[in-house]
Amino acid sequence: MRSWIPVPETTTGRLVSAALELFGAYGYAPVGVATIASHAGVTTGSLYHHFNSKEGLYHLVRTDVEQRAVDRLEGAAVTTTVTGVSELAPVLLVGFDYLVRSGFLRLLGEPSPETPDGTPRPDPVEQLIDRLLGGQQNPMPALVAAAWRTALCHASRGPDAARDARTALTRLLTKS
Question: 91 and 82 in contact (C-beta within 8 Å)?
Fold first, then answer.
């Protein structure tokens, strides 16, 4: 749960809003600090003042969106008995559809950047899939999470691509 919610018209709120939109549409690497600041109507110094770095801002918005998606996945999982990969389809499609509607496809479609010390960040979607499958499913949760994220990246190409990615993800999961 978030410890604070940025007020929309504040500098912090505008930076978060710009980051959600830009990282959601383009991902981490292509979006520069100057682009975020310009989109938010603030200086690059403001971004560094409030978030220390582009990565700090990215981590904040990614963590928030990831939690929103995981909350939806968990809600869908309550209504579904998951005994194997094929029962994951309706659960993962809830999160997929949410991200398509919200425009956060690239934000969660790409792997999270490593921490500054090079440590990989845990993948909450993979962790949820592992829990739903009852644990002991290595490497299945990682493979399913990777397929889900790949479908999100593909869907970011437009409505037709989103429909095709959803269809492919459904087929992949239900044929397992």
Answer: yes
Lowest mean pLDDT among 33-47, 68-82, 100-114: 100-114
The reply to whether omega before 30 is within 30° of 0 (cis) is no
Kindly report the number of other CB atoms within 10 A of residue 88's CB atom.
26
Furthest C-alpha separation in the chain: 51
- Cα atoms in the 13 Å half-sphere on the side-chain side of 79: 9
Query: Strands (DSSP E) along 41-109, which ranges?
Result: none
pLDDT in tens, 14-56: 999 999 999 999 999 999 999 999 999 999 999 999 999 999 9
CA distances for 1 relative to 21, 24, 66, 67, 97, angstroms: 21, 20, 11, 8, 22
The Cβ-side half-sphere exposure at 131, using a 13 Å CA radius, reads 12
